[in-house]
Amino acid sequence: MKVRRIISVVATAFTLSACVATAPRLNISDPQAVSGAISINRDDFKKVTNYKGPNASPDILDQVFIRAWKTDATGSISYQIYVMDYYNGDWRFYHSAYDSNGNSLNTTQISRDVGSCSRYGCSKEEHLGLNVTREYLEKNQDSGIRFKVSGKAGEEIFVIPGGYIRAFLSVAK
């Protein structure tokens, strides 16, 4: 009976993993697809509307998306590129970011977390916010944004396609 239960659990796990592996991935270069995947949440207590784009990273363990906040009091909207880099090895201690045009991007270190650990070491997650303006996003909505985050012990390159930026700007206004 115990063997049958184990076989059943393993078969179920394989079946579910096959479903995840075959799920269609969002085309992040398609403005229409991205527009439909942007979440909009309203906080009636803080009087803020939050916009969050879908994950633009081709690596399913990383996260890269644009988010924005619009406050009722001023009507102003703030934009941020959110980055979560997942890696193995020593902490990279990210502290800065530059785009492919050499522009320094205002970087906010959000958090550093240990992911999972094994006898071979632990995975790490570093969460950053790159504070940008609407004008900066508009300027890059055709070419996209290619940027590098850097730290004391490493760096990583990320890309947000122009179609993604265009879609986000059409929704978050």
Textual characterization of the structure:
Helices cover 25% and strands 45% of the residues. The protein is α+β, with helices and mostly antiparallel strands. A 9-stranded antiparallel beta sheet has the order 1-2-3-4-7-6-5-8-9. α2 packs across α4. It is globular and about 50 Å long. The termini are far apart.
Summarize the structure.
By secondary structure, the chain is α+β, with helices and mostly antiparallel strands.
Largest sheet: 9 strands, antiparallel
Shape: globular
Q: Helix and strand string, N-terminal first?
A: HHEEEEEEEHEEH
Fraction of residues in helix: 25-40%
Give the topology, please.
Blueprint lengths: L1 H21 L8 H7 L1 E5 L4 E5 L10 E9 L5 E12 L5 E6 L4 E15 L2 E12 L1 H6 L5 E7 L2 E7 L1 H10 L2
Antiparallel strand pairs: 1-2, 2-3, 3-4, 4-7, 5-6, 5-8, 6-7, 8-9
Task: Give the tags.
globular; 45% strand; 4 helices
